[in-house]
Amino acid sequence: MNFFRREMFPATRRGSARGLWLLAGAWLLGGAALAQSGAAELPGAGAAPDPVLQARLALGQRIYREGLGSQGLPIQALGAGQTALAGPAAACVTCHRRSGYGSSEGQFSARPITAAALFEEQTLPVRSPRIKAQLGTRQRPPYDDALLARALAGGLDSAGKPLEPLMPRYALQPEELQALTAYLATLSLQSAPGVDEQEIHFATVIQPGVSPDRRRAMLEVMQAFFRDKGANMRQDESRREAGTMRMYRSYRKWVLHVWELSGPSSGWTSQLEAYYRAQPVFALLGGLGDAPWSPVHAFCERFEIPSVFPQTLLPELADGNQYNLYFSRGPTLDGEVLAKHLAEGGQGTSVLQVYRRTGPALVASGSLRRALGAGAHALQDQVQDGPLDEAFWARVLAARPGAVVLWLDAKELESASPPPPALPVYLSYGLLGGKLPGADFVAGGNVRLVYPSDPPPRHESRMLRSKIWLHNKGLAVTQEALQINTLFAVTVASDALGHMQDSFSRDYFIERVEHVVGQTPMPSVFRSVSLGPGQRFLGKGEGIVQLGASGPQKALSPWIVP
Question: How many CB atoms lie within 10 A of CB 476?
Fold first, then answer.
């Protein structure tokens, strides 16, 4: 591979991922930010990068991710059926994904185009003689700069065979071709920070103010799961040696770090960076907090660290999210689901919503008002500063609403007086923290719940597998939603890594998570979950259920996806 060896990395032998990373990786993962993200631990990574190489890699990355070539102009290509493609429609990421590990849809597949896949001889690392005899080893010779240029322009692979018809034919300028080649020579080249030959490190973030009971409930599940991972390593290696599994190729001990935040949110970024400098992690798993998650979100985006399903009521909803995966849009989703239900039930023109001046309640009330749209003119707001006693309900009845929405948490309902029997009262399962109001509050009333799960008996049957797991680990079910969702998050991470072989790319990890969430055997509380490419919210909808003294009784609505 002439250009790759001669100009980009003259002092590095081909196939030395460490040497290539030292020369190019510091710019690729965020320039100065990478100095704290793990590259600083590599000898020589602190050297000033070559500005010519920086510019070339920057152009290559723009071509790959955005379809923008020289001077920011859209690149041009011909797709299947001689369809003209330009700009983002022609970007490599559209089919080969951000990681370069490819994708598939129906009978069509986009092959991996990572540095190793393109520029090294492709063989199958099979240890079992039986499988080696069945599959062979060599797949195709490596690309060089000339062969890659031929593939992009003419549609022939390095062995001279035609590529899939869906592979576009590109019209790139010489400097664009050179830049894309340079970028591909670094794509998913080395394992991400937080992974070494023996261990893979994860962290979970806990915001200040989390109750000891909730903190303990989450950490006990994670610690039990991590102990299982360590205990199963030897068995997994034996299965690999027997040649019965091609899914796994290498194993790491899972190590969990608990990153406890303290003080005001303005100081959280520096705390997260300090934790990360002390020990880089491959990904954040779970997490817990009631304050806005935006500082953690921004940290993960800056350092390109996957964050897998933190349990927060205030996820970051801004566009441009690559690395943060959430259970749902939280109170925003609650408001939209309830608005649709109220409007369809004829109650959307006479609703009183009651809330405290706290973040989640304000988000939910604002979401309901926006979602009601034209019907919001009759929506009454009441900021509640006192107890929910009989005098409170008398004031509510005096307003003559068709329904009441209480955007309140479980603690605020503990001492509340029961609502009037005929008045529909709506609560949010999310704002209640998964803890349902007491029987006295519900008895004889018309209390309803914006609910992410199934009504009984399906809810109990769907949760059974997870509860058996908790029982077998000696863990009592004290915080059902929190424990169930924690187990789901770590199981999804395990399933995703299990399909990655030894390719510890964070982008590939995110892509695998997108793929496995619907197949993971341990459920989340959300009854319907999915993540398409680029989607970052697992639960897209909720339902409305009737509450009884023992919990949800029956569904009052179909599954609502706003």
Answer: 10
Same topology for domains 199-328+458-531 and 331-451+544-555, yes or no?
yes
Supply 339's token pair.
Answer: 């608005």
Distances (CA, A) of 83 to 90, 105, 108: 11, 19, 17
Contact 536, 495 (CB under 8 A): no
| Topology, domain 199-328+458-531 | Rossmann fold (3.40.50)
pLDDT in tens, the chain (562 residues): 333 333 333 333 333 333 333 344 433 433 333 333 333 333 334 556 788 888 999 999 999 999 999 989 999 999 888 899 999 999 999 999 999 988 877 777 888 888 888 888 766 555 566 555 554 555 678 999 999 999 999 999 988 999 988 899 999 999 999 999 999 999 988 889 999 988 999 999 999 999 999 999 999 999 999 999 887 655 554 544 444 444 445 578 999 999 999 999 999 999 999 999 999 999 999 999 999 999 999 999 999 999 999 999 999 998 889 999 999 999 999 999 999 999 887 655 689 999 988 899 999 999 999 999 877 777 899 998 888 999 999 999 999 999 999 999 998 898 899 999 989 999 999 999 999 998 999 988 899 999 999 988 999 999 999 999 999 999 999 999 999 999 999 999 999 998 887 789 999 999 999 999 999 999 999 999 999 989 999 999 999 999 998 889 999 999 999 9
First to last CA, the chain: 52
Note the CATH architecture for domain 331-451+544-555.
3-Layer(aba) Sandwich (3.40)
Q: Taking the CB of residue 482, how many other CB atoms lie within 10 A of it? A: 22
Q: Beta partners for 257?
A: 203
Domains of the chain: which residue ranges? Answer: 2-184, 199-328+458-531, 331-451+544-555
